[in-house]
Amino acid sequence: MLAGVAIAGLGLLLTACAGPVMPYGSAVRTALPEDALVMPPPGGPAIISVLEHQYSNALQQRILLVTNARTQGQNYIQTQFFGVANYSPLNGQSLAYHSVNETNLAETMRQEIPGVVMKQSPYYVQNNYGPFGYAFGYGRGNDLCMYGWQQIRPGRDTRDAFGQAGTIQIRVRFCETGASEDDLLGIMYGYTINGAVEAFGWNPYGDANPPPPLLGKTGAPTYPKQVYDDRKDNLAKTSTVLPASTVRRSTPSTTRTVSTAAPVSNAQNVTIIDQPAGAVVTSAPAVSPVAAPAAAIAPASTIPAPQRQIPAATAGAPASTATSAAQAGTGSIPGPPCRLLPGSTTVTCN
User: Fold this and answer.
1) Contact 115, 72 (CB under 8 A)
2) Could you give the residue ranges of the DSSP H alpha helices within 191-252?
3) CA 166 to CA 82: how far, in whole Å?
4) Long-range CB contacts for residues 24-32, cutoff 8 Å, separation at least 24
5) How many CB atoms lie within 10 A of CB 43?
6) Is the distance from CB of 170 to CB of 38 less than 8 angstroms?
7) For 102, left (φ over 0), alpha (ψ -120 to 50), or beta?
């Protein structure tokens, strides 16, 4: 009896301590691709998954992209939104802010793209959100790798106690087989920020640009013009960063010989007009099948030019023979046509 009471009391105690399961990693979750805060350019690369990490002062997403490369690592776009309120009860960790500098970038590239020597671009470029930087390097095989970075925050004149606040940092790591610099750089030009922080004064973009000073004024005509060209060869208009070609391609050279000349025999080309009398034979000398062009091996004309007079040897020949003889000749000036009078052996020419 006492044992039964003890077991019942233990069951009540365990029931009182029961509660829902709370995983330790609740600050990190997997989001859907449509929940990504940064979208790749239209047409790709495709989003595989989104890893979201919640901090007490920021929200970080690593947007994993499709990878088609032999170089070690996963392609991604990483974004950090600073100025986010903490909405996770178990998360008291804050995300440290690091400004963009060459030391941090070099260390990050060694970690994210191991074994690849990255060369930073010296050119100034900017996209819809302002200036950005990038570096290129040759990966394994025929891979080309890019690491891009961008920091979006308002200017110093607007960052005060009651002014605009908020910062967005972007990092892009992308390697692809057979890609060019413009192909990879198009990701930095074409991505779109797809989120914001709902807080008063959060505006990392700064004030909107004013309209052109001559807009609406006289003496300043405006013509229709294509605003955006989505062809990838027009996205980037910068010089290449890596020497020589932007992609190492080891395509074996092939030589193909195409013969356009007609086959030529070693024998002479002989054409005979079947005529009983005054037969005409035209012959062309043999042409070498190797050195002769196509125009030189064309057969000679087998239609002789007509003559003004008929040779005497054919005056008494039959009508068919006389007519053939009248057409046979080698004169270069064509004469009037000749005909045989009916009932007569005389040939007259008009």
Assistant:
1) yes
2) none
3) 6
4) 24/90, 26/88, 26/90, 26/91, 27/53, 27/54, 27/55, 27/88, 27/90, 27/91, 27/93, 28/52, 28/53, 28/54, 29/54, 31/61
5) 10
6) yes
7) alpha
**Residues 304-334 pLDDT 10s:** 444 444 444 444 444 444 444 444 444 445 5
Cis peptide before 45 (omega within 30 of 0): yes
Query: Are the C-beta atoms of residues 133 and 100 closer than 8 Å to each other?
Result: yes
Q: Give phi and psi for 104, each to the nearest 5.
A: -65, -40
Q: Detail the DSSP E strand segments found in 107-238.
A: 119-120, 125-127, 130-138, 143-152, 167-177, 192-193
Instruction: Give residue 300's Cα distance to chain centre.
Output: 53
CA 68 to chain centre: 15
The pTM of this model reads 0.58
What is the per-residue pLDDT across 35-51, written as a single tens digit (0 to 9) for each? 999 999 998 899 999 99
Dist. CA 201–CA 159, nearest whole Å: 10
CA distances from 87 to 27, 84, 155 (A): 10, 9, 28
Six-digit token string for 84: 């986010």
Read off the tokens for 284.
């062309």
What's the confidence (pLDDT) of residue 296? 46
Rounded-to-integer distance, Cα 340 and Cα 291, Å: 48
Compute the distance between CA of residue 37 and CA of residue 30 in angstroms, rounded to an integer: 13
